């Protein structure tokens, strides 16, 4: 009997435990959703594949940790302040570097942001080591409740709630507001929108800052669960890429939906064939790309 | 004509290169090869270099010259580590390489040392293969291995009533070895293993595995992993109420830097095995004080072990007045090892240093008197019980008798 | 007619080639041979990668899979089955070629970033196999691979014969790349890079050309990996990680995308950095990052591209600098 079959036979959990695993998968999916959302927004508006997204996520967590350790600022203010700080860094990055390469192939955006990610990660690793800094769960959210089928930590419940709110808010902002319609129009035809008196370069800059801020927000949410470590971004970024690609590059709904779905898929793999849990997303990605070239919700590039 | 000139030039260069290689009379040179930038940088890293420098300074001039310490980052890549080791032995006149955490890199360096007949003093790697099937007459494993970790922690936990186990195992050679060795101990002591789960490297979220462990109802959740994986398992375990539910973690490889990084609140009550803790007695405190004055934090057992290994190596050279590897290894085997962390340690012919191992428990936050006051000693396990018997390791160097 | 891009005057080219060859022959007496061998292996790897990105315009983000799987096969056949070194290398290269054909067949249906992502996904599966399969030794890899005797005669355990063997392998691989680029086949590849629809309308079955180029590139990457396994006497997970796929991009970009000799220069610079800055720890990562940023913003031609450009300015009869080599643009909505 092959290894994985044996696993299924042995690990087949009772339905109740399966519910727990599904919920855990959703929670992890919440992080994928938030991160891929930012990537999708940036790709949609700037046509840049933001490899620095992982580093910005990590920076968000680090900002929260800096704030607590050096300034005594707690979790709740950090939830606002860290994304603003990272968004500011993102804006500087866009102004100084990214601006110069919009006319070039995607490849160069990818390589440039990859370089930026290496720099940020290397510097933090040098000063803060790699085993990570502890960050506690805020007092209001400690503890857990017994759902009958599982023990759900309050903080994880909050993560799902916050993530859904952020994803919905972003979708609403871009698809249902006037500002969003300008943005969408600007990606289709920047010169026309410019002609209407809208400052397109500034919009692009702010969009990048917004995407970076979303990554940072995910980072702050992640800080109490994982260690605040310089490596946390590079571990997750490739997976998030896969999520975005599966959802369809540039599609907000696609990014969010595939984030949650893949979280669940990964969660189930962790039960039935845990060795493959880091690989399953790539298997899905390969199949999706071969069957549905532009992902589930995407446009071709 | 031109050809001749070229040949002459090549020959001249070749001669000078050959001259550079024959440096057997130069100063004693020790290379610290470890992870300076990634997963294990906090365990050894630059702190190991500081420890080696301290040992060199304490030894004073050896063979009439100051001992030189150089260092490099192997990035946890076996090929990078092997390349650096070769170059050090061949070109840079390095006499001994030390530390080398990450078993895969250590196994590669071990082969280079064997081929070049140069000394390797392993401190960081946990693989017990280094003193088993892959043993090498020019290598020593200085402080610990998977076998001793499994035996001390596993044995003590079963003895105190933890007789059903569930393993969360890192899915690579090191994790498998740790799980296998511990499971053997558990079963031998009358306990049972009710399940296990293999977790891929670089997994950030352990909650799914923790739920599986919770569902297994095992009394003990054995963590056959290291570094960030262990930290995340324990941290998230606290979140899911593992300990409140009556289950206990047994961390099979935990460094003080890990406990520090977790914080006592999450780590309290955890039992762990180590060959050294900075606050054990006056001697360890004195060394740790000197170390942290230079490095800013007390030494991990890896860093302390680097000092111990380098100091013993230099002592052997001083005793016989040569750095010839064969003679030095013989002398190192002959001399008992005694320093701030070792009492009558002995280097066996399979390369194993047999020393006492200690079982510690992480203090409660209320028991701790400072940032680095983290562990209390539970039990001392004598070396001959903690380490694998000489004849059980399949080391070809050990004569079958 | 040599490639318009590398427009050195012919006289210079011969001279430079002779000089480089002499330097390569004398190098092991001046530099540490293992370092040189490592650099040569990576140089071949980068050349193979460049064949795809520089001449067909396809960014593969999974080339480590070919290098790594060939390294594993070579290490295993030589160590476990007692293959002679050359046969072992051939076995590894053959497996990489096969893998390349399969991956290529799947990946060339997609363009641009999706192509890169398909190759990444497939390479991650190879990584998974490398971790899980029994014969690869998981995290520890395959260690202590004997170098053996070449054709039963030349003892490769000494560094000089090994070096010249690696040099011969590299030159063979490089010659193949050179021939490919300058053949009619290579011209078609460039046409595909510049404008694929036009190439199709001219009657070329571009899919076949792309597949062949992909397979060739994978084969050469495999050759580099197989040779590297013998040089270091080990095969390990490092060679199949996505970071390795990223590193070869760095080498090629630094040396000059789409220049014949650029990848070689880039590989030497990268390997030198890794070796000589090894005690700098994570600052090496920072430096690599800075190089990426610098190259993309100001230095897109890479080292060799810039030199060629300079030389061309001084060469008589040519004044116009070529545009930086870029990857094929694919229009949105295509």
Structure description:
The complex is a heterotrimer of chains A (301), B (401) and C (334). Chain A has 301 residues and is mainly α. Chain A has one domain (3-291): Orthogonal Bundle (ABC transporter involved in vitamin B12 uptake, BtuC). Chain A is 72% helix and 2% strand. Chain A has 12 helices and 2 strands, in the order αααααββααααααα. Chain A has a two-stranded antiparallel ribbon. In chain A, helix 3 crosses helix 4 (75-96) and helix 6 packs across helix 7 (178-188). Chain A starts with a helix and ends in a 10-residue tail after the last helix. Residues 5-10 of chain A have low confidence and may be disordered. Chain B has 401 residues and is of the alpha/beta class. Chain B folds into 2 domains: 27-144 and 280-355, Rossmann fold (3-Layer(aba) Sandwich); 147-274 and 357-386, Response regulator (Rossmann fold). Chain B is built from 14 helices and 15 strands. Chain B is globular. The model of chain B is unreliable at 11-23 (pLDDT under 50). Chain C has a domain at 33-240. Chain C has helices at 10-30, 33-55, 64-80, 85-107, 112-132, 159-181, 184-194, 196-201, 206-232, 242-255, 262-276, 283-298, 302-314; strands spanning 149-150, 154-155. Chain C is mainly α and 334 residues long. At the A-C interface, helix 5, helix 10 and helix 12 of A face helix 5, helix 10 and helix 12 of C.
Q: Approximately how much helix is present in the residues of chain B?
A: 40-55%
Number of DSSP helical runs of chain B: 14
What global shape of chain B is seen?
Answer: globular
Work out the number of β strands of chain B: 15
CATH class of the largest domain in chain B: Alpha Beta
Number of strands of chain A: 2
CATH superfamily (homologous) name of the largest domain in chain B: Response regulator
Our Rg estimate of chain A from Cα atoms comes to: 20 Å
CATH topology of the largest domain in chain B: Rossmann fold
Radius of gyration of chain B: 22 Å
- What's the pLDDT, averaged over the residues of chain A? 86
Low-confidence residue ranges of chain B: 11-23
Secondary-structure arrangement, i.e. CATH architecture of chain A = Orthogonal Bundle
The CATH architecture of the largest domain in chain B is 3-Layer(aba) Sandwich
The largest sheet of chain B has its strands arranged as: 2-1-3-4-5
**Into how many domains do the coordinates of chain B divide?**
2
């Amino acid at each position: 009997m092959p290894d994985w079959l044996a696993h299924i036979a042995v690990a087949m959990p009772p339905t109740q435990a399966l519910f727990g695993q599904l919920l855990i998968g959703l929670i992890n999916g919440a992080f994928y959703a938030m991160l891929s959302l930012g990537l999708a927004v940036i790709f949609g508006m700037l046509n840049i594949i933001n490899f620095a997204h992982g580093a910005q996520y990590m920076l968000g967590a680090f900002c929260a940790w800096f704030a607590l350790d050096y300034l005594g600022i707690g979790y709740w203010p950090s939830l606002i302040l860290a994304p603003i700080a990272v968004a500011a860094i993102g804006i500087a990055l866009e102004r100084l570097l990214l601006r110069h390469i919009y006319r070039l192939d995607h490849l160069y955006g990818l390589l440039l942001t990859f370089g930026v990610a290496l720099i940020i990660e290397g510097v933090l690793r040098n000063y803060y080591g790699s085993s990570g800094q502890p960050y506690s769960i805020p007092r209001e959210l400690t503890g857990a409740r017994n759902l009958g089928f599982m023990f759900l930590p309050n903080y994880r419940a909050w993560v799902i709630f916050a993530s859904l709110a952020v994803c919905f808010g972003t979708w609403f902002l871009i698809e249902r507001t006037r500002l969003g319609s300008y943005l969408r129009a600007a990606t289709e035809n920047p010169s026309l929108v410019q002609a209407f008196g809208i400052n397109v370069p500034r919009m692009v800059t702010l969009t990048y800052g917004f995407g970076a801020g979303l990554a940072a927000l995910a980072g702050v949410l992640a800080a109490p669960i994982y260690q605040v470590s310089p490596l946390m971004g590079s571990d997750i970024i490739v997976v998030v890429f896969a999520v975005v690609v599966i959802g369809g590059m540039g599609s907000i709904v696609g990014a969010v939906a595939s984030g949650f779905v893949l979280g669940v898929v990964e969660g189930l793999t962790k039960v039935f064939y845990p060795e493959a849990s880091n690989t399953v997303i790539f298997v899905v990605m390969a199949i999706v790309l071969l069957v549905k070239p532009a992902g589930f919700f995407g446009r071709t590039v | 004509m031109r050809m001749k000139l070229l040949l002459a030039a090549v020959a001249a260069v070749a001669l000078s290169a050959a001259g550079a290689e024959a440096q057997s009379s130069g100063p004693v040179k020790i290379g610290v090869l470890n992870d300076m930038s990634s997963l294990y940088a906090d365990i050894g890293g630059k702190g190991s270099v500081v420890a080696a420098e301290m040992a060199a300074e304490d030894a004073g001039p050896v063979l009439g010259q100051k001992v030189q310490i150089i260092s490099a980052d192997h990035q946890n890549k076996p090929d990078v580590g092997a390349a650096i080791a070769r170059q050090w032995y061949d070109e840079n006149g390095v006499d001994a390489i030390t530390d080398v955490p990450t078993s895969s890199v250590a196994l590669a360096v071990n082969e280079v040392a064997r081929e070049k007949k140069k000394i390797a003093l392993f401190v960081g790697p946990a693989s017990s293969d280094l003193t088993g099937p892959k043993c090498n007459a020019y290598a020593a494993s200085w402080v610990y291995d998977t076998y001793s970790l499994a035996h001390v922690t596993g044995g003590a936990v079963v003895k105190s009533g933890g007789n059903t186990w569930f393993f969360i195992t890192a899915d690579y050679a090191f994790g498998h070895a740790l799980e296998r060795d511990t499971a053997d101990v558990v079963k031998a002591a009358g306990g049972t293993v009710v399940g296990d789960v293999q977790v891929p490297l670089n997994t950030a979220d352990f909650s799914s595995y923790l739920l599986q462990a919770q569902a297994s109802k095992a009394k003990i959740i054995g963590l056959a992993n290291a570094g960030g994986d262990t930290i995340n398992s324990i941290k998230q375990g606290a979140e899911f109420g593992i300990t409140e539910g009556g289950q206990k973690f047994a961390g099979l490889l935990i460094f003080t830097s890990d406990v520090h990084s977790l914080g006592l609140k999450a780590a309290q009550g955890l039992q762990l095995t180590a060959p050294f803790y900075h606050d054990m007695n006056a001697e360890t405190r004195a060394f740790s004080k000197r170390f942290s004055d230079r490095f800013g934090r007390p030494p991990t057992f890896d860093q302390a072990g680097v000092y111990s290994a380098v100091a013993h190596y230099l002592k052997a050279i001083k005793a016989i007045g040569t750095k010839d590897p064969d003679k030095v290894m013989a002398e190192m085997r002959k001399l008992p090892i005694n320093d701030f962390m070792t009492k009558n340690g002995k280097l066996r012919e399979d390369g194993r240093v047999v020393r006492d191992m200690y079982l510690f428990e992480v203090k409660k936050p209320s028991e701790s008197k400072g940032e680095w006051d983290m562990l209390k000693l539970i039990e001392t396990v004598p070396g001959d019980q903690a380490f694998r018997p000489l004849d059980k390791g399949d080391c070809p160097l050990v004569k079958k008798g | 007619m040599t490639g318009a891009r590398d427009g050195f005057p012919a006289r210079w080219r011969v001279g430079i080639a002779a000089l480089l060859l002499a330097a390569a022959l004398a190098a092991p007496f001046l530099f540490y041979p293992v370092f040189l061998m490592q650099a040569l292996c990576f140089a071949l790897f980068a050349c193979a990668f460049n064949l795809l990105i520089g001449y067909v315009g396809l960014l593969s983000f999974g080339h480590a899979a070919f290098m790594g799987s060939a390294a594993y096969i070579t290490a295993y056949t030589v160590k476990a089955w007692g293959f002679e070194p050359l046969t072992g290398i051939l076995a590894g290269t053959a497996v990489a070629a096969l893998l390349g054909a399969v991956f290529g067949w799947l990946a060339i249906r997609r363009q641009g970033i999706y192509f890169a992502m398909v190759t990444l996904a497939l390479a991650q599966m190879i990584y998974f196999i490398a971790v899980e399969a029994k014969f690869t030794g998981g995290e520890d890899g395959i260690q202590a691979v004997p170098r053996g005797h070449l054709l039963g005669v030349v003892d490769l355990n000494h560094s000089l014969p090994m070096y010249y063997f690696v040099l011969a392998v590299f030159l063979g691989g490089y010659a193949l790349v050179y021939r490919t680029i300058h053949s009619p086949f290579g011209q078609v590849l460039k046409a595909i890079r510049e404008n694929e629809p036009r190439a199709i309308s001219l009657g070329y079955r571009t899919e076949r050309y792309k597949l062949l180029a992909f397979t060739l590139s994978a084969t050469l990457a495999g050759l580099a990996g197989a040779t590297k396994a013998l040089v270091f006497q080990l095969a390990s997970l490092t060679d199949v990680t996505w970071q390795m796929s990223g590193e070869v991009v760095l080498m090629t970009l630094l040396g000059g995308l789409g220049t014949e000799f650029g990848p070689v220069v880039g590989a030497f610079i990268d390997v030198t950095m890794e070796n000589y800055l090894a005690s700098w720890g994570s600052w090496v990562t920072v430096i690599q990052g800075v190089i990426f940023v610098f190259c993309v913003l100001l230095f897109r031609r890479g080292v060799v591209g810039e030199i060629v450009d300079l030389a061309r300015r001084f060469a008589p009869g040519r004044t116009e600098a070529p545009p930086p080599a870029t990857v094929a643009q694919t229009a949105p909505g295509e």
